[in-house]
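Q: Entry one of two.
A:
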Amino acid sequence: MEGSGRPLSVVVAGANVHDTRLLRATLEAVIIIRPPTLESPQNLCLDKGYDNPTGWDSVREAKYTPHIRRIGEAIAGVGGVKYPPRRWVVERTLAWMSKCRAILVRYEKKAHNYIGLLQMACILLWFRYQLKLTPVLR
């Protein structure tokens, strides 16, 4: 997801698969064309769950600058001011996507049918965001 919570890619897997195993596939599924890394470095912020060799390797292979919080590291900002993680952005986006009934309860048996529904829900989120930004001409 990008900074304001809109999804950039979607990957489907079983509920028993840990997120770090899906990181490489998720980064490969991003559909936005990135600028060349020489012009501006691309940053990727992840939580402590990705602080393992698989997470670090996946981020580096995708040519992102990793910002992964270390396990056991305290959350502290500049001058002792604490900046809590913004987990609500992810939860809000998942709540928006769960408004679609076919996504909330998975009726589709085949993964490619379900991922198509997820992609349509992501398109709808982006469309609503774009519609909100464009001025209405009267």
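Q: Entry two of two.
A:
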Amino acid sequence: MKKTPIRHDFDKAFFKRFYDDVTTSVISEDDVFKRACFVLSYLSHLQVPVETVLDAGCGTGLWLRALRKIDRSIGYLGIDPSAYLCEKFGWFRSSVADFRSRKKFDLVVCQDVMQYMPVDEVERSFKAIADVCRGALYFDVPTSDDIKSGLLDMKKTDRSIHVRSAAWYRRRLEKHFENAGGGVFVSPRARAVLLALERGR
């Protein structure tokens, strides 16, 4: 079987297919809103306050729209490497791996981004996120485990990606964060109250 090349083009056509067209969209505004409600509620339970959010690979801004519905006082910065999106929405143009900031963020969101990165860029990205995160990371990415189990609809999912196991990502995440379950990873800077059974082990 011929291997599908990894995608590097994030232009208007890509976002029209995977975000704007409801018949081929990989994610919906309602789905992101539910995730945001969960993450903010869970972090409140863990006693990790969220006043600032960095959306690392923000795409079309679904997390911004969700956060505005939940709490408009939350400060938001969206970064994305796509020239098309940055021109359209005004995001700060940067890859995750190359992002640097003196400002620290209470929550970093990195959803459906690292499957497009080679190994060295993934590892640099986790390090860059850890450097600017003082609270928690919400991380989500398609994994080989989800594909094998049939949880992902591969008719809609972009196949031009690196497919890796959940364990592969966890090994790299645990260098910088504590797994709190539900895709939430807590920074050692945070004074989170994380009980033993809440740890994602």
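A: Comment on entry two: The mean pLDDT is 88. The domain at 21-198 is CATH 3.40.50.150 (Rossmann fold).
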